[in-house]
Write a structure and sequence with these properties.
By secondary structure, this protein is mainly alpha-helical. Helix content is 66%, strand content 0%.
């Protein structure tokens, strides 16, 4: 498949089969579940136990600093957390 065909394919896929929008908190919870991680495993990345509790419960948004740390920790794009 050449570059032009690949672009048409991507545009078709995005138009006809869009990925659902997922919140940053849902992304974090899914990554943790996928890797079998618990609250105690992630709080050092988020800063402290209280921040981890609030983020995981949805009471607090993920900050830019936390998003960067999470992206590095999970080896995923930062866009998942912003």
């Amino acid at each position: 498949m050449n570059g032009g065909q690949r672009l048409k394919f991507v545009v078709y896929e995005e138009k006809n089969y869009p990925l659902p929008q997922v919140s940053p908190n849902d992304s974090l919870n899914a990554l943790m579940e996928e890797r079998g991680l618990k609250h105690k495993d992630i709080w050092p990345v988020l800063g402290n136990k209280g921040a981890a509790t609030e983020v995981l419960s949805g009471r607090r948004s993920i900050s830019k600093t936390q998003a960067k740390r999470l992206a590095e920790y999970f080896h995923v794009p930062i866009d998942l957390f912003v």
